[in-house]
Input
Amino acid sequence: MPILNKGIGAGWASRLAEFLSGLNPVRDPARIVSNAEKSGISRWRYEWVMVIDLERCDGCGLCEEACISAHQPLPGQTWMKVYMLRAEDGTISPLPRPCMQCQNAPCVNVCPVGANYYNEDGIVIIDKGRCIGCRMCMAACPYGARYFNWRAPDGGVKEPHGEEEVHPVGVVEKCMFCYKLLEEGGLPPCVRACPMRAIYMGERKQDVMTNGLETLRLSKVLEEREAFRLLEELGTEPRVYYLPGRRGKGCLEGLEAPLEP
Output
């Protein structure tokens, strides 16, 4: 089971401590729609979202392992990262963190060469042929969800799952919601691998979410479970929603910075 925070900078730990002390639950789905319209999401063909149920998540890390197996990133890169967070009372709470697929993405805003862009579904993609490796997007991302390729994979560059899986030297990579699988009607490996069925993919226009076994009304779940998004006060408009865990509305309140390995 992965324990925080190997490979994470002090800046991320500091930011994590900040948002853990000031999370704002999203209690009104109308607010979600309003924010989405403000950020221009209506122009997208689909509006994919990920929903992670912290009440179900037991921190097993199988989603992380499935992501690594499917995408074969360089060692140390964990595009879906499961953090283990400790509360003041000693309670340990898992927090899976993919790319938040922000609709006002700092990475897109700062990229000097346009290598970070939204595809037709609003998913943030990296054009590795255009990326110059300046890492400004890594500095801008408040979620620590981007990784730089300092070297090529052992045995040379591999292409196991299509062009987005090439891992060239000197570029940045990250989770991309497995957008090609979504286009084909499939679910990302992290969703399929979760034994607790805690990870859902949803589509806002159709107001639906599924973990492969259950199909639920997205807006109803977000409202009734008082869903929240990480650091949404920054105006990044993340597409990843969390459903509070066993500690209720304050499932992450009082949690400290990530545990050291």
